[in-house]
Specification:
The chain is α/β, with parallel strands linked by helices. The chain folds into four domains: 2-15 and 535-609, Sandwich (Immunoglobulin-like); 41-155, 2-Layer Sandwich (Chitobiase, domain 2); 161-526, Glycosidases (TIM Barrel, Alpha-Beta Barrel), CATH 3.20.20.80; 618-767, Jelly Rolls. Helices cover 24% and strands 28% of the residues. The protein contains 19 helices and 36 strands. The strands form nine sheets. An eight-stranded parallel beta barrel has the order 8-9-16-17-18-19-20-23, surrounded by five helices. A seven-stranded mixed sheet has the order 1-7-5-6-4-2-3, with helices on both faces. Strands 30, 31, 32, 33, 34, 35 and 36 form a seven-stranded antiparallel sheet that branches. A hairpin with an 8-residue loop joins strand 13 (224-225) and strand 14 (234-235). Helix 3 packs parallel to helix 4, helix 5 (175-187) packs parallel to helix 7 (246-258) and helix 9 (307-323) packs across helix 12. The chain is globular and about 95 Å long. The relative contact order is 0.07. Bound molecules: acetamide. Acetamide (ACM) is lined by residues 334-335, 384, 401. Acetamide binds at residues 334-335, 384, 401.
């Protein structure tokens, strides 16, 4: 048997020819394993290792980590097992932890389960830790009657940086929550915890030399209620805050180390620093006083790059570097408005004196000085992608959050990169379109989107791609007041991300992932993790066919069924089961529901389609919408489905940034048109304005148009949707309609977003 196993291991580690692989694999059971992240290689053997009360743990050499491994395994074992020390491994009824220097990958491991023993071999204790995590999942999800399936798993991570982030500033979470966060992430083999510790809304880490940072900076007098974009804004007028003492930080660092998680502490600069300015106003370019911000968003008051500020930051960083043993210190760098620096004589003189180009050059100077200091203490800096502006500090790593562009640029400059683009990695976005979801900042990043992410952009060549050291999921907490809600937003999206950062790209498959995920969700729920479960949510795709709207329904629950109605009746499992896409040609009220194992799961899906003369036809746009707000494609604005007043980032609304809307509808044949109604989103706090003017033209051939109607629009008020009817001149008969809706233009002074171009959102164009 031993030789057989060795043979297998040689095969999977690629040292043997692959032609015999099939024969070997077939000798096993071909069982389905629920391990997440999916290991590099699983080879099934015949039979089981049966755990009994005589089973023991065994190790070659004692290390305190062994205790952690035994504790972890005992938490899922049917029995609490005894240990024995050995100067060799035990082949009989033992679970062996073996440090093996012949294994190449630092965090890799080989887990062998045979009929008579279990062995986890790794080069490092990190590797053994991950082997233990895999064995725990084997016991939790794939073991029945105390029989662990015999298997050889060879495994190692795709990326060395596998991160999750937590913003403890917008809302504060006590040490016990932070530990739970770390514990959970380590179970899915994440190894970096990005702890966002300082912000405009609160400073959360004790700094002995500057006690006011926490006495003053850790508390705000009031917090915004509802959305940042709400008009008017409301506040709770309640003092809120908290911070971690250095003793608590040390304890958390130690806890994380036990879970093989390195903490990356973030001290934001030069922006997101209002809490520090509130404590020590002399850090700013203007006099103050400053408050700890009660509202989300960005503060124009930022650190002033004076010698006093640098001394302060060096003192702060010195204390921080003492507390955190990891190589990286995150220095922020994002969203630092330059308004104060532009007006400050000191800053302008400094720009001249240092020969800098502008305020971006000054930010680069700021970060480079900090980098030099951090490097002098043997550590490295990492910052958000804004640190590229004005020139990257020589040794800095970049966290790419505004898409991948910054990451690509940094990799090309041979700097290390952690990818965390908003569209895939921001867990503060909505994960479901269900209208009962808790309030979130916006966006829509469902599980499948996270899973689909590949952190290595196609634009990079192989050499450049090596600088992508991993990816990270971010949990910003403006709208997340409780830890329960943190868990809800992070899980299961973090589980999807764990596979993004661990599993080889070629082994990843969403349907296979979902099959493995189901028991994890059940187990996490049972363990008291407030994991979200949207696998039963139904999503629909609507495509215009020229004579109707093709509807495709789907969900993410393997082995489930969707039942539906078209007449507005609530369906159950006695109604027709959905099997394939169909074309809708008459007004319909679609309702659908998922059933799994005979039970209803997930929310009721419903959509109304109200047919009109243009519904199901085709439209050509002359101005492109923003890619972010074009999810359903151009034809979505003539499919009979009205965009909702809740979310404009859905598959119905089209959003234009600063541009007019210009579209040509082809009705297929010439017909009489009486009236057109156009619907627009109206959320001035979110910079979204209705148009100022509409013009409609008609044509028989699609080339020569004549005016058919026009309207100027004023006083649009605060209702979220504005529906504007435009009566056409009498006897308008046409095949083609050209519609122009003029953008509001630059937002006026005094309004939110002043000076920026307004957004124009359109859905639907109803032709009667
Ligand atoms: C960020 O989301 N401001 C990095």
């Amino acid at each position: 048997m031993k030789h057989f196993i060795l043979f297998l291991i040689l095969m999977i580690t690629g040292l043997s020819c692959s032609s015999k692989k099939k024969i070997v694999i077939n000798s096993g059971e071909n069982r389905f394993y629920h391990i997440i992240p999916k290991p590099v290689s699983i080879i099934d053997l015949k039979g089981y290792f049966k755990i009994n009360k005589y089973t023991k743990y065994s190790y070659w050499e004692y290390n305190s980590e062994i205790n952690t491994f035994m504790e972890l395994l005992n938490s899922v074992m049917p029995f609490s097992l005894d240990t024995m020390t050995s100067n060799g491994t035990f082949d009989n009824n033992a679970i062996n932890f073996v440090i093996d220097s012949t294994i190449i990958e630092n965090e890799g491991y080989i887990l062998e389960v045979t009929k008579s023993f279990i062995k986890i071999r790794a080069k490092t204790y990190s590797g053994i830790f991950y082997g233990v995590q895999t064995l725990m999942q084997l016991i939790q999800y794939d073991t029945k009657n105390n029989e662990i399936p015999a298997v050889v798993i060879t495994d190692y991570p795709r990326f060395k940086y596998r991160g999750l982030h937590l913003d403890v500033c917008r809302h504060f979470f006590p040490p016990k929550d932070v530990k739970k966060y770390i514990d959970l992430m380590s179970r899915y083999k994440f190894n970096r915890f990005h702890w966002h510790l300082t912000e405009d809304q609160g400073w959360r880490i004790e700094i002995k030399k500057y006690p006011k940072l926490t006495e003053v900076g850790a508390y705000r007098d009031s917090t915004l209620i509802g959305r940042y974009s709400d008009v008017p804004r409301r506040f709770d007028k309640t003092r809120y805050g908290g911070f971690y003492t250095q003793e608590e930080v040390k304890d958390i660092v130690k806890y994380a180390a036990k879970k093989h998680v390195t903490i990356v502490p973030e001290i934001e600069m030069p922006g997101h620093s209002r809490a520090a300015l509130a404590a020590y106003p002399w850090l700013a370019c203007t006099k103050g006083p400053f408050s700890v911000m009660p509202i989300w968003g960005i503060s124009e008051d930022i650190y002033c790059p004076t010698e006093k500020t640098f001394r302060f930051l060096e003192d702060v960083l010195s204390e921080v570097m003492e507390l955190f043993p990891g190589e990286y210190i995150h220095i922020g760098g994002d969203e630092a408005p330059k308004a104060r620096w532009k007006k400050s004589k000191f800053c302008q003189d400094l720009i001249k004196k240092e020969g800098l180009k502008d305020e971006h050059g000054l930010q680069s100077y700021f970060i480079q000085r900090i980098e030099k200091f951090v490097n002098s203490k043997g550590k490295k800096i990492i910052g958000w992608d804004e640190i590229l502006e004005g020139g990257l500090a020589p040794n800095a790593a970049v966290m790419s959050w505004r898409g991948e562009k910054g990451g690509i640029e940094a990799a090309r400059q041979h700097h290390e990169v952690v990818m965390t683009p908003g569209n895939y990695c921001y867990f503060d976005h909505y994960q479901s379109l269900d209208k009962n979801e808790p309030l979130a900042i916006g966006g829509y990043t469902p599980l499948e989107e996270v899973y689909s992410y590949n952190p290595v952009p196609k634009e990079l060549n192989n050499k450049e791609a090596k600088y992508i050291i991993g990816a990270q999921g971010n949990m910003w907490t403006e709208y997340i007041p409780t830890f329960d809600l943190v868990e809800y937003m992070v899980y299961p999206r973090a589980i999807a991300l764990s596979e993004v950062v661990w599993t080889p790209q070629k082994l990843r498959n969403y349907q296979d992932f979902l099959k493995r995920l189901v028991p994890h969700l059940e187990m996490l729920k049972k363990e008291g993790v407030n994991v979200a479960n949207h696998l039963g949510d139904i999503s629909a795709k609507f495509e215009n066919t020229g004579d109707g709207v093709k509807m495709t329904l789907r969900n993410s629950m393997p082995g489930s069924f969707i039942y539906y109605t078209l007449d507005g009746k609530d369906p159950d499992n006695t109604f027709p089961v959905y099997s394939e896409p169909g074309i809708i040609r008459q007004s319909a009220y679609i309702k659908a529901i998922t059933y799994y194992k005979g039970k209803r799961i997930g929310p009721l899906f419903s959509r109304k389609i109200k047919m009109h003369k243009a519904a199901g036809k085709f439209i050509k746009l002359l101005n492109e919408p923003s890619p972010k707000y074009n999810k359903g494609g151009a034809n979505a604005i003539i499919n009979g489905i009205m965009g909702s007043d809740v979310r404009y980032a859905d598959d119905q609304w089209l959003g234009f940034n600063g541009d007019d809307f210009i579209g040509i509808i082809d009705l297929g044949t010439k017909m009489h048109i009486n009236k057109i109604k156009m619907r627009f989103f109206n959320s001035k706090g979110a910079w979204i304005y209705p148009p100022v003017e509409i013009e409609i033209y008609s044509s028989d051939n699609g080339h020569i148009f004549k005016i058919a109607g026009a309207l100027k629009i004023r006083n649009t008020g605060y209702s979220k949707i504005i529906q504007i009817p435009i009566r056409l001149i009498k006897n308008t008969n046409a095949r083609f309609l050209k519609l122009v809706a003029k953008n509001h233009g630059i937002i006026e002074d005094g309004a939110q977003g002043a000076g920026h171009p307004a957004w124009l959102f359109v859905d639907e164009i109803i032709v009667e």
